[in-house]
Amino acid sequence: MRQIIVGGHAAGITANRYNCLMGGTVWNATENQVWAPIPTAGAIAKLRVKLSGNVAAGATVTITLIVNSVASALTATVTAGNAIAEDITHSVNVVAGDTVSLQVTTTGAPGALNAFWTTEFTATTAGASIFLCNINAWNGGTIYNRCQGVDASSQTINTYRAPMPTAGTFKNMYVVGSAGPGAGGDQFTITLQKNGVNTSLSCVLVDAETTKNDTDDVAVIAANEMNFTIVPDNGPATSPYYGIGLTFISSTDGESVILYGDQTTFGANSYHHPGDASTSWQAAEADARALVQGCTVKKLYISLYSALGVGSATFTVHINGGATALAATVTDPATTGNDTVNSAVAGNGQMISVRATVGGGAPSKIPRWGMVLLTTDAAKPRGGSAAGKLMTAGAI
User: Fold this and answer.
1) In 3-state terms, what secondary structure has residue 377?
2) Whole-prediction pTM value?
3) Is 378's pLDDT higher than 60?
């Protein structure tokens, strides 16, 4: 099956910086602080890029898939006067344990621009999709984090828990660290949690170890809340960055999942990138959108950190700036809501976001969500230009 991966961040691009393939964050000068290991063999293809404005005269912006710290053939270059590019020609094979990231390079002075991207992953194993994230461990205590993307961690377990929108099985957990925990028995234990309880998917890294994997299976159903925990033991000497990859096989063919969890509260009529939690809620939708490829968005699940206290809140999926029928409402005193009836079709090069509105009172709480991206024959990409060539001119 084809899995649509979305990423991007409302932070200006800087030459020779790296980002997480899934979700995204602020561009980083150090790759191992954003990379993640592939948990199952497959191919990455169809890189599409949108910038927040046109590249200035005499300049270019290039985004490239990096595999095991080496530039791959999958690359898209946005040329002067344009904001969009794609590479739908190249396909890069990867195997379990390979590290992946994105790199941005520039020529000239392209201007103050943000980048949004999307790729496709097709696993060798039928029905498999992947979760990728990078987490900075802390040798001072237990921390919790989301299952996708990159951001600061929390010492509060509920902060990053996000609801599964569908049933399936997690397996093949791979971990790669920027450094070992230390020596003399220093260790970190990284575990997938379900509803705040440790699962059997867990990796223990000791002393100089920087890689580990676990092939256990963990079954989940819709509304189960997922997160990672990283526990230090014996006073580790370091606080490494850990890239983590998970395989997910949905019980429904063609489904992959976006999960979101964060510490930021929403306001009335505010917007959020569906998978980049390092971006706070925005008043302007242009700063909170994700680039997507042909798919159907469905099964929206919402979970609040705590009850609203008054009124209600509705979370609606927007495509290209317009509200779709896919919306979930949470009404106080409940803390959850979902929409498993409606869906929305997104095409190549379109942008999706999540909009929060309130009904009665002025609730402002921390929301977490999960949604399904369904790929079928009808939703396959419709084709396009050659590698790294312009799709169309203009800004987002």
Assistant:
1) helix
2) 0.93
3) no
